Amino acid sequence: MSLHKVWLVLKREYLTRVKSKSFIIITALTPLAFVAFIGIVVFISISESEVEKRIGILDQTDVLIERLAEINETRYFDVSDVPEDTLRSQVLDGDLDGFIVLTDSVIMHGKSPTLVHGGSGGIAFLSGVRSDLRDAVREERLSRENVSAEIRDIFETRTGLEAVKLTEEGESEDNTLFASALGFILGLMIFFGIFFYGALLMRSVIEEKTNRVIEVIASSVKPIELMFGKLFGVLSMALTQFGIWIVFYIGISIAAAPIAGMIMEAQMSNLPEGATEAAAASFDPSTLDNMVIDPSIFAYFILFFFLGFMIYSALFAAIGAAVENEQDSQQFMPIVGLPIFVAYFLNTKVMQAPDSGLSTFISIFPLTSPINMISRIASTSVPAWQIITSILLMILTFFGIMWLAAKIYRVGILMYGKKATFKDLAKWIRQG
Amino acid sequence: MAVIEVKDIRKSFGKTKAVNGVSFDVTKGRIFGLLGPNGAGKTTTIRMINYILTPDTGEITINGLIASPETQRMIGYMPEERGLYKKMKVFDQLMYLTQLKGMNADEAKKSIEYWLERFEALDWKKREISELSKGQSQKIQFIATIAHDPDIYIFDEPFSGLDPINSETLKEIIIELREKGKTILFSTHRMEQVEQMCDDICLFNQGEAVLTGKLREIKSSFGENTINLEFEGDSSFLDKLEGVRINNRSTNFAEIRVLNDQSMQEILKLAMEHAEIHKFERIEPSLNEIFISTVGDDNIKKAEIK
Q1: Contacting residues of B for A208, CB less than 8 Å apart
Q2: B50:A219 CB<8 A
């Protein structure tokens, strides 16, 4: 094999792709979409607390309103002097978000009171009101029973759970939620990457056939040189694109916390006094520090994308060589599509239970490993032997598939005007 | 000196024997024509010479070397299925194809500039192929074939699909290349093109080379056994002739191949009785006729010969 020729093919493939408009647009728009997404999330979590529902309390117990106001003085206010009918019409007019009639039996018999409201607010609002009420009623009952301060303290205790992740480097703050989300997203990106760049390679192979330029090329380079050149050309383009995004992400994740902090400060200066604290409590910019991803995960991401792409793109190239146009490629798509879709669907299982038997198996099985292993690596600590086994299996699979694909490719690229069947492919492999 | 030596090559695809024991030599500085109907094995043979395919058995040597990536760069090849990258600029494309043939970037650039200028195509350098007309892209295809300055040029059905101007241009290039001592091999199923240009021919039929040699010698070996007849009047007398084969018949013209030593004077006499004769000429048979008489009437698919 002449490396110089592989290099020439690679260079052409890479440059024509990277210079194309679609490459520039996709590369630029994806991070912008990402920033917009983060911006929206931050904005929502801030503005959520801005709009506080106002709930009138028609208190017939004379004690609960004080306790409720203590819990949240912007939300609850006393409307005990207003007749219920007036409150109803206020709710209908939208002047009031809702009201609750509290009777003694709420305290004495644990009767559930009714919240009459305008219908907006969502589950978070309702459960917030419910828990406020529970607290208020419980405290009232405790104080009526003259319970000692110690016991009251027992009731006020809320045991939380702080998770700490133990690694070789020591203890670190746990961020399981972010880690599994990251694992899922990275798996998703490899899934889309393999499909997107693989299909790109396939189209590029088909293009050479339909343009009929293939025969001129075949009189200058060996099919295997052409195939490798194209494969690595598209791969280089993919890595360029991922590289740009990763650099961008690292930049963003470092800058995110300070920027979000600035946005919040700016926002808060516009807020009324009382809401500021609530807003600050609901969103803590330091959580953004968790978004800084361990560089080794990026390294694994690139490695698994590389191996996955190599395995699948060899198949894509062979399919491209076997067909005349993109429509005809549909019949062969299940070969590629089935394992990769299985990997994609099972990735939610990996996210839920990254250490289960199923997760371990599909993260080592070479056809699903590129997607499922990266998800596991990002979300749990995978034993080194599993990672190494999966990498070795993928390399072996690559050589096996490459061997078959090269045979199909060699014969296929010179077949014009004929739609190949699976039988033809088997024949080409035997001939080769 | 033989620059291309083909020795008893065979190639099968499944049960089809595409090429079945073909041998011929192509001599330096001459134009060699590979003739025969479609499906006779010409393109398969050409692909093997270009090392796109390899023969099942037999051997091909180019300048004494067995066909290999090394010999590929000695050949400029224009396939029957012509094509270029539609979305690539003319100059980039030519640079790519020429470098793939093993020329270094500097030389490739010089050579491409030269040929672009020769074809008055310098203005298209920055244009994509899809923006060019069919005739224009055909010119770029010529340049792609010849820019790496090989010793040997192979054109598969070069004139099919060419507009008349480019057809003339290509003929001029082929003649010019021969004058420079280059060797040209082309294939065609259109016999009359060969008569005008080829020094040597090889006739293909059903995967076999049925006749090989110098065009002049082959023609004269058949003798002046053919009559060119021009006349005016009733042409039905032609049907009464026996022991002849009539090629190329029209209302007032016929090319008559005389078989079995039938007397030409008898034919003239019969013709004079029925029509007014404008021209009666004894000639060597046309290549078409040679082909038919070599492979036999029954062995060819007539529709494919013109």
Answers
A1: 85
A2: yes
Domain shared by A315 and A413, yes or no: yes
Residue A282, token pair as written in the block: 């609901």
B103-155 per-position pLDDT tens digit: 999 999 999 999 999 888 899 989 999 999 888 888 999 999 999 999 999 99
Domain count, chain A: 2
B97/B206 same-domain check = yes
Altogether, the residues listed in chain A come to a count of 432
Question: Could you tell me if residue B179 is inside a domain?
Answer: yes
Q: Which domain holds residue B239?
A: 224-283
DSSP-derived secondary structure for B246-269: EEEEETTEEEEEE-TT--HHHHHH
In this prediction the ipTM stands at 0.82
For A217, which of B75, B82, B100 is closest by C-beta distance? B100
Residues A301 and A346 occupy one common structural domain: yes
pLDDT digits (tens, 9 = 90+) for B17-59: 899 999 999 999 999 999 988 888 999 999 999 999 889 999 9
Residues of chain A found within 8 Å of residue B144, distances taken between Cβ atoms? 216
Do A340 and A217 fall into the same domain? yes
Indicate the number of domains in chain B. 2
Question: Between A12, A207, A222, which is nearest B69 by CB?
Answer: A222
Q: B260-289, pLDDT tens digit by residue?
A: 777 788 888 888 888 888 888 888 888 888
* Residue in A with minimal Cα distance to B46: A219
CATH number of the domain bearing residue B241 = 3.30.70
CB B245 within 8 A of CB B58: no
Which chain A residue's Cα is nearest to B93?
A12
Average pLDDT over residues B99-105: 92
Residues in chain B: 306
Q: For A173-192, what is the mean pLDDT?
A: 80
The answer on A211 and A336 residing in a single domain is yes
Task: Decide if A215 touches B, using CB distance below 8 A.
Answer: yes
Q: Chain B residues within 8 A (CB-CB) of chain A?
A: 14, 47, 50-53, 69, 72-73, 75, 77-79, 81-88, 92, 96-97, 99-102, 144-145
- Smallest Cβ distance to A427: which of B14, B52, B87? B14
Nearest C-alpha neighbor of A56 from the set A34, A44, A74 = A74
Q: Which of A220, A225, A414, A431 is the best mutation test for B, with the most CBs of B within 10 A? A: A220
**Residue A366 DSSP class:** T
Its pTM surpasses 0.90: no
